[in-house]
Amino acid sequence: MQDLAFDVSLQSFNTFGIASRARRYLRVTDARQLAELARDPALAALPRLVLGGGSNVLLGDSVEALVLHMGLPGSEIVGQTPDATLVRAGAGENWHAFVLFTLAQGLGGLENLSLIPGTVGASPIQNIGAYGAEIKDVFHSLTAFDFASGATRTMTAADCRFGYRDSIFKHPEGKDLVVLDVTFALPRAWAPNLRYAELAQALAADGILEPTPRQVSDAVIAIRRRKLPDPAEIGNAGSFFKNPVVSGEHCARLLDSWPDLVHHRQPDGSEKLAAGWLIDRCGWKGKSLGRAGVYPKQALVLVNNGGASGEEVMALARAIQHDVQARFGVLLEPEPVMV
Ligand code: EPU
């Protein structure tokens, strides 16, 4: 294939800023490149790493898989239903730029998800969520290229099997699928989603009682800027661990020793714990191991203090997992994909 490149630096393509190199690399700006790839038996047989904004991966020194760096462009309104406006974006569009595009069209629905790093194509992979919203709430459909059949297919929310930071794309059944574009159904009858107390409080503190989508977005942006490091300044991949879910009994036992444990009851009686709180209580906030560290303002975020390798970040993650397991009997599961 003509546009295939070799030994490409991925340092500026991952938000951790790890100096990793790709053995083989393809910048995908047209879906036909994937069809061409699928027709070449030698290339089609290679393991693949689909890279969007690189905001949810931890890369090793070298990536042996063929890197497909998704750059499919475009954001547009594509239709109306009785309840919603349908808006579609290419997988390569920057997520936050797309959120701002919808707001500029006067459409609400994505404002709680403002400033999440990464691309539109990555948003369904882990069903991105923040401040009481997840993309599955406004998801309409997506188009994916299927390396198994060599054809594109349309997938509904049910096909995608969305869960907490989860979807079919993270499981073996989804390994041959590459997201090409995503369509969202943004509601005509918009109402603000202020379930997340910190967001409601931030707006109320500014005297805003009936916010517009834009005002909610501005408030989310302000909160995120206060708590989360900007990858352009400090390498990071957002939350490094998922919030763990434990049984009701386990949570009750922990509460005996730790009355201020942060926990949220789930519909099935299990309890979701705040990983940031657990890490904080193990004393890791603001600490470093080698050139990797725990962000001083949010213990859930691991950072590259400059020049860290993927292995150094992993060593820190393992030390944290060990301490949280020893103290609380809870195994923290990393959120980023390790390559
Ligand atoms: N906490 C501490 N110490 C810390 C960090 C948090 O005690 O160092 C406590 C907080 O006081 C709070 C609780 O832990 O009571 C939860 O913390 P917070 O609301 O800051 O974050 P979270 O709920 O754990 C999730 C998402 C974030 C998302 C926020 C806001 C996950 C793994 N993370 O964090 O997503 O922005 O909610 O909705 O679900 C991301 O995935 O990259 C991400 C940033």
Main traits of this protein?
339 residues, alpha+beta, four-stranded mixed beta sheet, 9 helices, 20 strands, 25% helix, globular, binds uridine-diphosphate-2(N-acetylglucosaminyl) butyric acid
Description of the structure:
With 339 residues, the protein is of the alpha+beta class. The chain has helices spanning 32-39, 41-44, 95-104, 157-160, 197-205, 213-227, 248-257, 275-281, 310-328; strands spanning 4-9, 21-28, 48-51, 57-58, 62-70, 75-80, 84-90, 129-130, 133-134, 139-146, 151-155, 177-187, 235-239, 245-246, 263-265, 271-273, 288-289, 292-294, 301-304, 337-338. The strands form six sheets. The chain has a five-stranded antiparallel sheet. A four-stranded mixed sheet has the order 1-2-5-3, with no helix packed on it. Strands 13-19-18-17 form a four-stranded antiparallel sheet, covered by helices on one side. Helix 5 packs across helix 6. Bound molecules: uridine-diphosphate-2(N-acetylglucosaminyl) butyric acid. Residues 130-131, 196, 228, 238-239, 242-243, 262, 274-277, 280, 285, 298-300, 335 line the site of uridine-diphosphate-2(N-acetylglucosaminyl) butyric acid.
H/E element order = EEHHEEEEEHEEEEHEHHEEHEEHEEEHE
Helix content: 25-40%
Count the helices. How many? 9
The pLDDT mean sits at: 97
- Globally, the shape reads globular
Approximately how much beta-strand content do the residues carry? 25-35%
Q: What characterizes the major β-sheet?
A: 5 strands, antiparallel
Compute the separation of the termini in Å: 24 Å
